[in-house]
Specification:
heterodimer; A: 6-stranded mixed sheet; 0% helix; B: mainly beta
Chain lengths: 114, 114
């Protein structure tokens, strides 16, 4: 079984500032890792995923996340945020084998202030 | 192409009533998943279908919850004797067979039990 912990429920930052949203996971098996974003009044959208290979993965809108196996972390970063990045961000894990269900963290609300 | 659709988008019902929530997956996706997202929480897995059969229903909270997928496409989540604690957003996702790491989510059905 897997569990995912997002260490910050809310993160306020100023526009154009850097941001890091933290995610740690626990699993007895190998996992795939994901970040999903939920914009206000919209559904869940996949932001980026780590399946294998390079431990640094990037999204099309400037976010990146690094898989760190020794620290069991998958933190999400962006060097300069925009007002449009205001959303709820969810980290999730999926066992490579076995159960086919995503296990989500509690979510981090990112608020961008002008 | 069309994404995952869910109907209704909102449902208000009285405590003790029966409700049905519908999910139309992406055409050709044989895997279908139901999740529940309570206020301020990340989505939690309910049930996973591979074709017509429920491959994993370990997330259903009790026997008031039931889901079907009789023809391997549309799925219906059924909740009997609703309780106020059932109030949540119910999310549906679908994927191609063997690609549970690429789950596409619908917009959700917001269920409110009064």
């Amino acid at each position: 079984a897997q569990s995912v912990t997002q260490l910050d429920s809310q993160v306020p930052v100023f526009e154009e500032a850097p941001v890091e949203l933290r995610c740690n996971y626990s699993s007895s098996v190998s996992v795939y890792l994901f970040w999903y974003v939920q914009y206000p009044n919209q559904g869940l959208q996949l932001l980026l995923k780590y399946l294998s290979g390079s431990t640094l993965v990037e999204s099309i809108n400037g976010f990146e996340a690094e898989f760190n196996k020794s620290q069991t972390s998958f933190h999400l970063r962006k060097p300069s945020v925009h007002i449009s990045d205001t959303a709820e961000y969810f980290c999730a894990a999926l066992g490579v084998q076995g159960a086919q269900k995503l296990v989500f963290g509690q979510g981090t609300r990112l608020t961008i202030n002008p | 192409g069309a994404g995952v659709s869910q109907t209704p988008s909102n449902k208000v019902t009285e405590k003790g009533k029966y409700v049905e929530l519908r999910c139309d997956p992406i055409s050709g996706h044989t895997a279908l998943y139901w999740y529940r997202q309570s206020l301020g929480q990340g989505p939690e897995f309910l049930i996973y279908f591979q074709g017509t059969g429920a491959a994993d229903d370990s997330g259903l909270p009790n026997d008031r919850f039931f889901a079907v997928r009789p023809e391997g496409s549309v799925s219906t989540l059924k909740i009997q004797r609703t309780e106020r604690g059932d109030s949540a957003v119910y999310l549906c996702a679908s994927s191609l067979q063997g690609r549970s790491y690429e789950q596409y989510f619908g917009p959700g059905t917001r269920l409110t039990v009064t």
